[in-house]
Design goal:
Layout lengths: L1 H11 L6 E8 L9 E7 L5 E7 L15 H7 L3 E5 L9 H18 L5 E11 L1 H11 L2 H4 L8 E7 L6 H7 L5 H8 L3 H6 L15 E6 L3 H16 L4 E6 L6 H4 L7 H14 L3
């Protein structure tokens, strides 16, 4: 019996795919820490879909290294995983940091095949502030257009737990994030709020990709904004699924992605299989 258990444990540790990893790659000029990304990819195969991951941190902090199990987990499932740094407030505006994300996607599009990836099959994901940036670059096509790329290279978007998809509505509804704080982040003008609101860029026929929107079940602000954003997408005939993560916090919905039996992770896997045609 002990031998059988030992064999089972040994077998369970061999499922992880062999990967190639490169860190601190500059994705644009001038090169610097905030303009770098890390790539983890399966050692073998080609035309793997590519996940671009955008970390959170209130648009003012965080790092591409804060990815927990994600690189190995997604490589095991046949994805190239790219984790991106970007500049922060107050050094740059949120528009400029979204431009950083677009430049990183441009790099991914140009270099995906070097890592066995498919440059026409990119999925953008992010947590918290990174979720907002992911949703914005996937709905406001001006950012990718500035890089000479169409939205059609994006096959999906997975924003995780953020409450500012529609900033004017967020200010009107109120919530745990004060109006003063929202205005400090997004400026004082209605025009500026609209420019930075993913929901207000949604239009039918723009080639906006399908969305899987995750939020903590008992966070009212993110629930209301997530459901509203999904409805806006659906009205524009864009696929949008909302998953409320029970028993999670704003931190654990991110940090526990990839652990066994994690329901948000399962929802992501099913979404990725659908949008990439893996199943």
């Amino acid at each position: 019996m002990k031998y059988a258990i030992a064999c089972l444990l040994l077998t369970s540790t061999t499922f992880a795919a062999e990967v190639q990893t490169r860190k601190d790659i500059s994705y644009c000029e001038p090169a610097g820490k905030r303009h770098q990304l890390d790539v983890t990819a399966p050692q073998t195969g080609k035309d793997h879909p590519v996940i671009v991951w955008i970390h959170g941190g209130g648009w003012a902090r965080g790092d591409k290294s804060n990815v927990q199990k994600k690189p190995q987990v997604f490589a095991d499932r046949g994805f190239v995983f790219v984790s991106v740094n970007y500049r922060f407030l107050p050094e740059v505006t949120i528009q400029e940091m979204t431009g950083d994300i677009a430049k990183a996607i441009h790099w991914v599009h140009d270099h995906a095949r070097e890592y066995g990836g498919n440059p026409e099959e990119i999925i953008v994901m992010g947590h918290s502030a990174g979720a907002h940036l992911a949703a914005l670059v996937c709905t406001d096509d001006s950012y990718l257009k500035a890089e000479g790329l169409p939205l059609s290279i994006l096959k999906g978007c997975v924003p995780v737990d953020v409450s500012v998809y529609d900033i004017p509505k967020r200010l009107k509804d109120g919530g745990t994030l004060s109006a003063k704080r929202i205005k400090k982040l997004f400026g004082e003008t209605e025009a500026g709020w609209q420019k930075l609101s993913p929901a207000l860029h949604v239009e039918e026929g723009k080639q906006i990709p399908p969305f899987l929107i995750l939020h903590v079940a008992d966070r009212k602000d993110t629930r209301v904004q997530s459901e509203h954003f999904a409805q806006v997408l659906r009205e524009a005939k864009i696929s949008a699924t909302v998953v409320a993560a029970e028993g999670k916090t704003h931190g654990t919905i991110n940090s526990e992605l990839g652990i066994p039996d994690d329901k948000p992770s399962t929802a992501i896997y099913e979404f990725l299989d659908r949008v990439t045609g893996k199943k």
